[in-house]
From TrEMBL, chain A:
Cellular compartments annotated: Cell membrane
Lineage: Bacteria, Bacillati, Actinomycetota, Actinomycetes, Micromonosporales
Taxonomy, superkingdom: Bacteria
Membrane topology: Lipid-anchor
Protein name as it appears in the record: ABC transporter substrate-binding protein
Automatic annotation (TrEMBL), chain B:
Keyword set, alphabetical order: ATP-binding, Nucleotide-binding, Transport
A Pfam entry, by short name: ABC_tran
Biological classification of the source: Bacteria, Bacillati, Actinomycetota, Actinomycetes, Micromonosporales
Transmembrane domains' residue ranges: none
SMART domains per UniProt: AAA
Keyword ATP-binding (UniProt): yes
Name listed for the protein in its UniProt record: Dipeptide/oligopeptide/nickel ABC transporter ATP-binding protein
TrEMBL record, chain C:
Source organism of the structure: Phytohabitans aurantiacus
Bilayer-crossing regions: 9-26, 101-119, 140-170, 190-210, 246-272, 292-318
Protein's membrane topology: Multi-pass membrane protein
Name assigned to this protein: Peptide ABC transporter permease
InterPro entries: MetI-like, MetI-like_sf
Source organism, top-level taxon: Bacteria
ABC transmembrane type-1 domain location: 102-311
Alphabetized SUPFAM superfamilies for the sequence: MetI-like (SSF161098)
PANTHER family: OLIGOPEPTIDE TRANSPORT SYSTEM PERMEASE PROTEIN
Primary location group: membrane
Keyword Iron: no
Keyword terms, alphabetized: Membrane, Transmembrane, Transmembrane helix, Transport
Amino acid sequence: MRTRPRYIAALFTAVLLATTACEGGDSGSSGNSSNGGQYPRNETLYTSGSAWGPPTTWNPIVPGYATGTVGLVYEPLFIFNPEKLELEPWLAEKGEWSADNKTYTVTLRDGVKWSDDKPLTADDVKYTVELGKIKAVPYSNLWNWLASVEATDQRTVKFTFSDPRVQEWENWLYENAIVPKHIWESRSEADITTHKNEKPVGSGPYVYQAHAQDRMVWKKKDGWWAEKALNLKVAPTYVVDIVNSSNEVALGLLTSGRLDLSNNFLPGVANLLKGDFKVKTYYAEPPYMLSANTAMLIPNTTKAPMNDVAFRKALAESIEVKKIVEGVYGNIVKASNPTGLLPVYDQYVDQATVSSSGFTFDTNKAKATLAAAGYKDTNGDGKVEDKAGKPISLKLIVPSGWTDWMEAARVIAEGAQAAGLNIVAEFPDAAALDDARTAGKFDLLLNNWTGVSNTPWTYYNYLFQMPVQAQQFSANFSRYQNQAAWELVQKLSRTPSSDPAYKTTIAELQKIQLTEMPAIPLWYNGMWAQYTESAWTNWPSEAAGAPKDFPSTWNNMWELGSIKMLTQLKPVSSK
Amino acid sequence: MSLRVDNLKVYYRTLRGDVKALDGATFTVADGEIMGLAGESGSGKSTLSKSLIRLDTRMRLVEGGVELDGKPLPIGDQDAMNAFRFKEVSLIPQYAMSALNPTRKIGKMISELLGARGVKYSEIKPELERRLDLVGLKREVLNNYPIELSGGMKQRMVLVLSTLLNPSLLIADEVTSALDVSTQRAVAETLVEFRDREFVKSMIVVTHDISLVYQIADTIMVMYAGKLAEKAPADVVVNAPRHPYTQLLISSLPEVGVRYADRKLAGIPGSPPGLLNPPAGCRFRDRCPLAFARCVEEPPFVEVDKNHHVACWKAQ
Amino acid sequence: MRRYFARKVAIYLLTFFVAVTLNWLIPRFMPGDPVLRMLTRTSVSNPDAIAPMREYYNNVFGLDVPLWRQYLNYWAELLQGNMGISVWLFPAPVTEVILDAVPYTLALLIPSILLSWYAGNKVGALAARRKWLDNTVLPLGYALTATPYMWIAIVLAWSLAIIAGVFPVAGGYSFDLQPSWSLVFFNSLIQHWFLPFLSLFLVAFGGWAIGMRNMIIYELEADYANYLEALGAPRRLIRRYAFRNALLPQLTGLALQLGVLVAGALVTEIVFGYPGLGRLILMAIQNQDFFLLQGAFLFIVIGVLIANFVIDIVYVLVDPRTRTGMTGGAA
């Protein structure tokens, strides 16, 4: 009786052992590092903040893949350098437009190999692009304006466009990874999007090492093409991405030196920086973080009074963004430029338009704007009624549990109330909110799918995309219809960055955005990144001489240059 | 002389002081004697019967002694007393229905109990089975759980178990109060039979029911407010009681054979004195129709007739 | 006896059937649409692609047939161990996702339930007879049992893992290890397991200890205990009986507490970043992955039912009173 529970405990740990031992993969070899681990600390980079669920798929075609699947294993033809605002050849050696912009020719690097030692050829590129002909592949819309793709020789691929959307194409070029035809061609059409693609064969610097419920482990591959071609070597032998269970756990791991790079949102990180936790961020001063995307207040313009531009303007004027930046975020974010363009696009901001048409926080002005447009408080409740004299009662929804946004929504509602607009914040489930946003069943909401990219075109496409569908999945949640603006967006997409029309088109769009206010830019969310220097140094930073790459493991960030961060890191010499 | 109790005083400890529940009892029970012990609630009969086998934690032996078969019974010493329990003094509790561990087979429980008392179950089993036969219980009951037995069966089982080691003294505490009339009779007869077969030498039958006790008891002892009032052969107590309390008690019974309820006697005005600070002298005097000046002195419990003891000045 | 078990099994099967049906039903009444979730995830911006993709995912999730058919299919698939495809972790099968997590949850739950029950009962029984133990165990027990799982987990994680650094902060085993049959790995597994286990253990322990202490005091006052004392039985024997009898209500309590313990384990896992079902369920809710949610709940339901069934059987074995109830008694 007395020994039985011990026996039970032993039994179950044995069961646990057996099951986890089967799950993890191939290696049973013991390590030789000081603490007995298989991944020596000074060769291993621990990251978190990207994955919120166990790694279950390594299929680069469908979002949801394990952190690093695209970036560390599968690579795009180009990567984008947000500092210089230009594409950098990656798998491609170069890419050239024909004079009439109708064709684009990619020349692949010589000697790029898949991790199974087969060469990466023009056929692989052609195959990957043609996967877009399958409707379930996320980039299937490429084929609305791409006419054909041709592998003219082993290293050359020629793309012919029916509609040469230069900017959109360049966006495609760095956002999508090339997959090996010799492995994928045996898969059925349904398999392409449902295959888990275990043990992925890619061209990148890392290969699959192991995974478990709470981690993804990548191991450095010998002979990555960029070592010769670009003289880039990734420093960590192992990259261990830890699945987040909560931001608090990430904080604990970070402060105890068991995590090198945390891309989690850690409220109060400013205090951590001041304290003796050896935590670093990109900037030493506010806003500490680079800006990753613009948080937008989305009015549903199919509903009154959000369909009235004067109302939207007054709403914009009623919001004290400073209070959000300081009060809610403790200065780890920045107030947005009225145009909503991210700081990386500063050079495109038309200052004249901003000063003439931009909005600033001014409750009295908001009141005046409302009064001038005919919104008056007729029943004396302190809140304005609509033009017909009916009370206005609007809901601003943000996902429950997103504490920073919930607080921000309260600040917004408070400002609106002060200006006489009866807006209250509500917090439905994240998924319910998704549905409301997709179906257009909301008054006001916050959204930030305005991430940094190669071009402001993605931002204006987000604002003005037409036609407005019954369900809007990725853009124009305001359901704002402006044919002129949409044509400008399309024009922008067709304009090369080098063309002077590129900047003027952006300026025209800014003017429309500022006068029409289809959505209200509020603040720039940070590219949350906190690092410790216990094992790795030379992190990206504003400091002179430090790398300027994006310090992020978030999906799509590798292609925006985060991959280069791995080549810049330096191990803290052991002992 | 089987049991000799000498000036036994057992008090209850309370926060307000000692409750003198048993305040000096002196009597004897002879070999083969079945003594009925009667009295109201609070008369001290339960305290007396408990004292003889196990003082509970609030009870304190103040004074006096008990001898069983000529040997002193260490009733104030729980551990020393253990050697006598079951073997020399045994008990049939009031709660015989629930006296058996519900989650043990009866035979198993008996064997464990005997084992713990240093008696081999296998050696005593034949005798146990004989006695089961005697009380009309099937031998299979040993393989049963208590819940599988009826109330009467459990009562008989406890009777057999309590007397299994042939104790000198058996205390039967309100053994019949939970039973129906016919079963009562059977149990009462079994008690007599056990005495006759010398399974027990002598017996104290604590009861409310004088009429029942009258049928089986050789003597009856009446207690009042922690003191002995009268002890005499059963028919004397019923037919010619000498203590005024006994007289009132008997006369207040509508007729012999009808139980009186456990309540203040309607026929006797007033109520027993509190035992925290009982008055000096005769404790019944406030209610006694015969009380006189001398009653402020405590009357001794003296033999007024052969085997007839009374504690009353008027009876002497 | 056989009839009793047949009846029990029937009741459990019925419960299982109802649970599975409810489990299937509830997500379908929740607002939200898994296909929409997938379309949102893949950010379809191509208007032409919406309809075919909707159809495609409807088919993948088996939503392209009438509800009654979906229900029958659900059972058919379930009996083959197939619980559909996760929306959140698309395209991973739910069964696979859950089976990866279940060992961790079981490794927390089973030892913490059994050990806390065992130790709580032992200590509670001891407390019932040692004054000094009673004076410490009783307030401690009340404090522990009143502590929310979340809170004790956070306190333990903060003090022992983050500040003292004695235990790891998160994970199922050290992030620099791969599963292997080595002492190092086993050691790491235990280290990561210990704090979540401890927090579950402590809260449950307090409740059992108090329960047992009160029960045994009650049992020691019971008639059978008094009778045995009057017959000179040694305290050891009486305590043994009292302990055994006091265990019975504790056993019933265990059956009743299982659900609470499971819920506690889920919260604890999240605090310690322990890779069990807890985080899966939380994320499944947040992502409206009702296939995964269904699967996880089904596992919990099955687990609780099995545990209850075992407790039922054990109860019958240890308590003759239930047994006479089913044979009709001998008297």
